[in-house]
Amino acid sequence: MFPRSRCTTLGSSMRFSLVVLLSAATAFGSAIPRDLHPRDVPADELAQFKFWVQYAAASYCHDNYASKAGHKLTCWAGNCPQVEAADTTIVYDFSNTTATDTAGYIAVDRTNKAIVLAFRGSYSVRNWIADAAFLYTDPSLCDGCEGDLGFWSSWALVRDDMIKNLNGAVDANPDYDLAVVGHSLGAGVATLAAADLRGRGYPSIKLYAYASPRVANIPLATYITAQSNNYRFTHTDDPVPKLPLLAMGYVHISPEYYITAPNNASVSANQVTVLEGEVNFNGNTGTGIPLLTSFPAHHWYFEEADACNGPGLPLKV
Hints:
alpha/beta
């Protein structure tokens, strides 16, 4: 425990540093073009968004990421009813095998003819360490591209097994769509995984990233945006998509699907606005600095996305 005088000095220093970083962030962001003509989503797209978040929600449920092949997806919290109603089974699950504790599953949905790779959000201590890395690494995806070390490592450490099992699922279901989904940390990992997989034989893979942190510098974000089939969601003043800070060189992929509905409320089509640009102050980025008091907005993405999350922060799951 620090002496009181040192705590006061540290607190003042941290507040000053935060002001400097946020000021730099504003200057950095204002230099990037952004769309002045946002649009609402059509109702049929909204139904898809509400469906795919249920696969992200299911990734938090222990029985789905620590099960056996053939297990039917279930959510004890009741937040994935459409997934539970579908003919969906897990073909591969993963957790507690890497330094980053990357967890999730690959599932085959025969009702909707889809193969789903889902990444769990933060749960264990190792997840939070991966979350907070905020250091750059070269993922070798494009010239000048750099991504967050923690999120990239979370994907790279499981990539070989994922590709092997995805190949098997695709060979058995060649006409099925392929989707990568995640919420929070899981969305950050899913974003980089989708970008990588598109260059490894799956160019049409769709990404559904709910409450994703920033994971890329401008060249990498531009590269992923150009791949298309990206659906990245934010909700009101959720603090997680505001991290890492713009001043650190991180930006988002485009577009942003900005949800303005209140917490714990159903979402209508006119409450989801599509915003273009790696930085756009008309959406989540423009709602102020990241605050812990805004964290309730992080949970609600059409459903309470992390309702199945277990208690505590275990070293192992």
